[in-house]
Structure formats: structure tokens, C-alpha cells
């Protein structure tokens, strides 16, 4: 048993880190089993209880506290942090992120105050928990990935996670076909979308994209295994039916063609087309799903246009700088961020992420080489950023956790070279 565990984890700190990632991956397993999600979007489900909603934040806070204690008492990890902070570009990224966190928290408090009632019901406080609370992962991830063995553990984490998502989706699909048991986004007589173990088609689709990126650039996996996994991933993305994810996969394929990875790009596109053509043989499947998604996309676009026309009077210059006095939720995360936290909030989030991408890009330009792990992280951060134009992925747990993990992984690459 110890040997099996050691094949995944090599040190107590890594054990804690990857344990947290596995908990995050499996956390939403209860949704489909208990039929709880959001009653506004899941017609056959009940509403998630406050306990189920809050526990992921409690687990995250406990994880951070234990991590801080371990680092504080270990000279080895202190030395790793010294090495990380010795890099000027990394210091700039970290200090800007810390400044951004303080700004978001104080902006929420100044605009909306603090009360138990608001914490339970207010959209700004949703920001604090759905978005801000997971950002500190970026400070932990670099010292984990300074050890090259952690790259192997990360890939094993992705393989185990995808196996979990695949098996869970097969169960959902089988129960739907046999006893008409609907997933969260399943509408009797209409669209049916499968969100795997998270029961969230939009969130899990971006995780599939994360896996696909790392899988394509993985340089030690046999080609036959790689193509089988690509096919399964495309199948899962198709069942989730996220237009945002499909667009991101299409852009990724164009990029692969640009860097001359023709086989992988053509295989991904061919797999998607083949699965699409097969689905046409299922009565009404294509019609119900795609017509529903077409109307849904139209509704979201109309809401953004309507808000843009009606809200101009609500936003004075000071609100445009520091955040509006109208609480806004939008599918486009960047518009939402701007209206709630102003130009400053938008810039404070953009600076560290864009600067991280720029520094890494300059590094691979100068060195004329890169490794599959850091390059995969680089590409996924870009994909994640583009995806937020269509969905607020920065607020969707646990895919937002994995975003900060790969950002930290990229920072570790800057620190060790």
C-alpha cells in the first residue's frame, strides 16, 4: 500500500497538495446522487443546502492553514520560497496578486458592508468565496512543482480525474437511457447535457480542455494511448455540449496546426465531426440540444446588450473606476468584473496573469526550447482567459482552482531556470 501511495506522492507537503486537488475533483459527486444543484437551471433537482455549498470553502481554508504551518516549520520549504522570490518577475506577479486580493476584499466591504445576512445572500460576497478564496493556491503551487517528480504526479492526477469523469458520465448516460434519470441540465422533452462527476457541463468542459492540452503535449505517452484518450475526451465534451468549450477546442486545433502538430489537430477535429454525425442518428437529439443551446446563447447576448443600454445612468466616473453601485452578474466574466469592481479591479487581475504569460513567452523565445509541462500550462492559461468571455470560469469551482495551480506551475518554471 505504501509503495502504491508513493508512486503518486513523494513528500508530506505534496501529499497534502494533491489530496486537496483530489478532494476538489470529487467534491461535487453528491450533486447527481442527491439531485441538488441550482433550481433556477436544473428543473428536476432541488436546491443545494448551505452546508454542501459552504464546505468546499471550509476545506480550502483548513488546507491553507495546514500548508502555512508545514512551510513555517520546514527550512527546506523556506529555502524554496527564497529561491522563488529571488526572481524579480515573480515578485512583481506575487505582489500584484496580493494587492488585487486586498483591493477586491476592501472594495466589497466599502460598497456593501459586512453582515451575516449579506454574506448569505449578496452577489459581492459570492465573489469573495467563489473567486477570491482560491487565488492563494498560486502561492503554494510553485514550491510543489519545483520538484520535477510533481509533474508526474500531476499527470497521474489528470488521468485518474478523467477516468472518474468518464465512468461517472457513462453511469449518467446509462440511467438516462434506461430509466430517464435526468442530469442537472436535463430538460424533459428538451436539451439534455451531461456534466460528469461535477454535474456541471460548463465547468467540467473546461477541465476536459485542460486535460486535452496537457495530453496533446505529453511527450512520454504512447501515441495509441494518446489518441484513445483524445477520442474519449472529445466524446465527453460533446455530451457536455458547452459552446464555449467547443469554440476553445477549435481555437486550440488552429494553434496546433500553426505549430505543425497536424496529426493531433486533425484527429481532434475528425473525432468531433464523427461523434456529431453519429448523434444525428439518434431521433431528435441534435435538434433538441442545439436548438436549445442556440436560444440560450441568444438570451445571454440579449441580456448583455440590454444591460449596456439601460445601465449607463447608474455608472458615474467614480463607479467606472472603483465599481458600480448596481450588482451585476453576467456570463461574460470581464464585463461582470468591470461593472462590480471597476477599471482598477479589471487591471489588477489582468496585470499579473498577462505579465506571467509575457515573461514565459519571452523566456521560450530567448532559449528556443521549452518543456511540455510549462508549455501546456501556458496554453491553458490563455484558453482559460478566452473562455471567460463566454462563461465566468474564474468563479466556477473547481476549475478555477486548477487555473491557479497551473499559474503557480508556470511561476516555478521561471524560478528554477
Question: Can you offer a commentary on this structure?
Answer:
The protein contains 19 helices and two strands. It has helices spanning 2-6, 12-26, 29-34, 50-73, 75-85, 88-112, 116-121, 123-130, 137-145, 149-179, 201-217, 223-240, 243-258, 262-279, 285-310, 317-322, 333-367, 372-387, 399-415; strands at residues 36-37, 46-47. It has a two-stranded parallel ribbon with strand order 1-2. The longest helix has 35 residues, at 333-367. The protein is globular. It starts with a helix and ends with a helix.
Unreliable runs, pLDDT <50, ≥5 residues?
5-9
Secondary-structure element order, as H and E? HHHEEHHHHHHHHHHHHHHHH
Shape: globular
Distance between the termini: 36 Å
Helix content: over 70%
What order do the helices and strands come in, and which of them pair?
Elements: H1 2-6, H2 12-26, H3 29-34, E1 36-37, E2 46-47, H4 50-73, H5 75-85, H6 88-112, H7 116-121, H8 123-130, H9 137-145, H10 149-179, H11 201-217, H12 223-240, H13 243-258, H14 262-279, H15 285-310, H16 317-322, H17 333-367, H18 372-387, H19 399-415
Parallel strand pairs: 1-2
Helix pairs in contact: 2-4, 2-10, 4-5, 6-17, 9-19, 11-12, 11-13, 11-18, 12-14, 13-14, 17-19, 18-19
Summarize the structure.
Helix content is 74%, strand content 1%.
